[in-house]
Amino acid sequence: MKSAIETISYNRCTGCYGCLNICPVDGAIEFKKTEEGFYKPFLTSKCIQCGICQKGCPVITKINNNNLKDIKTYSCWSKDKEILKNSSSGGIFTELAKEFLKDENIVFGAKWFEGEIIHCAISKMEDLKPLQKSKYLQSKMGNSYKEAKKHLMTGKKVLFVGTPCQIAALNTIVKHENLTTVDIICHGVPSYKAFNKYIRESFNLDIKNIEVDFRNKDEGWESYNLIFKDKDKIITKNNLSKDQFFAGFLQDVYLNKPCYKCEFRTTPRQADITLGDFWQVPKGIKNFDGTSVVTVNNKKGGDLFEKIEAGIEKFEVDFETALKGNPCLSTYSQKEKNRVEFYENVDNMKFEELQRKYFPFYNPSFLRKYLGFIKRKIYSLYERLR
Ligand SMILES: Cc1cc2nc3c(=O)[nH]c(=O)nc-3n(C[C@H](O)[C@H](O)[C@H](O)COP(=O)(O)OP(=O)(O)OC[C@H]3O[C@@H](n4cnc5c(N)ncnc54)[C@H](O)[C@@H]3O)c2cc1C
Ligand code: SF4
Ligand code: SF4
Ligand code: SF4
After folding, report:
1. Statement: 72-189+256-329 belongs to CATH 3.40.640
2. Ligand 1 atom having least distance to the Cα of 90
3. Tens digits of per-residue pLDDT, 241-267?
4. Where are the domains of the chain?
């Protein structure tokens, strides 16, 4: 029987590591970076063609998770200013994690390791900081789903946070009353090839020492900065509207192929709770230091969310209000703008040239002036006609 990757092909493969976590043969699958810069499975000569990995592949195996279509949606944030500062949006991940770590239970999340992102487990509050904040790169899952299963077998409670495709993979492998899952609203993951090229050409540094704080809030939550560090030394600070790598990410030039038509960011959601940024949050229910949108997708999610209520501010809203500023909360497709051209030229052009040609900075001041001009014209026309 065919393996999962032979069945679905690389264009549909998210790189979620589900197949690796279920394969019974040690060393039959190796994860390596593709030409485009995404981790995906490669079969070795040890593969016995048993086809078992199809059961752990969420593209093939669909699990009915009983999550509700009619979910509860909130605008919320942590009351703890330090947590807010160290989180991408409203710090709800940390509030949820604290609930597990206070009894030395287990939290899985993503952290920097040697210039890349890996998933790992922690059981102590002092290890939480590296898991906070979004890292806009593909996280290498390794054997985390299998590890989560082992922790559950020893009686531990597990909180597992990941992208919707990762949670869908986890759901094919582990089902347990003590497992609570959180998925993030997901725009998609950008390429390591693009990231590494950008870092090498801009900073001439060893990739392994690089860490990026993608969500520094010194100038606010909505207009955040990216801080590039060589070990702990700050090299540069770029506003999100002026960072070349981020421009290509936000303009969808080098996302992982399945992200453009993601089948996992949809409602009913994959996890018990969903977290994101509440972009375009209505006035009155907004915190300028970070506002999370949270959807509670089933009873298990609701029970956990109730436990953190004392530490957060929360306001219930319509799902449609949250969806307005954040289309990735439900089914949403992106266009592959200049992706082919980018990859055709990535090895023979400088990153800066690629950026100018294929994902130029959007100029908000020009747009504002232009919109202001149009508004004034419409207003004067209206005045004349009155
Ligand atoms: C690749 C990516 C794309 C995203 N796209 C959107 C979007 O389009 N719209 C939106 O509203 N929100 C998006 N988010 C989610 C958002 O940035 C915040 O992560 C979310 O709001 C939670 O914030 P927080 O303040 O509660 O906690 P934070 O402390 O910011 O928690 C972040 C959580 O995400 C986990 N995480 C970090 N990086 C990764 C990764 N690479 N892969 C898997 N898990 C990771 C961490 O372990 C932690 O559990 C995205 C996040 C990522 C990683
Ligand atoms: S040995 Fe079986 S489960 Fe493992 S990769 Fe090959 S087909 Fe898949
Ligand atoms: S399980 Fe995940 S990594 Fe493996 S083939 Fe399927 S989508 Fe790709
Ligand atoms: S957009 Fe979809 S496929 Fe891509 S990382 Fe997010 S959940 Fe996975």
Report:
1. yes
2. 25
3. 999 999 999 999 999 999 999 999 999
4. 4-56, 72-189+256-329, 222-254+337-385
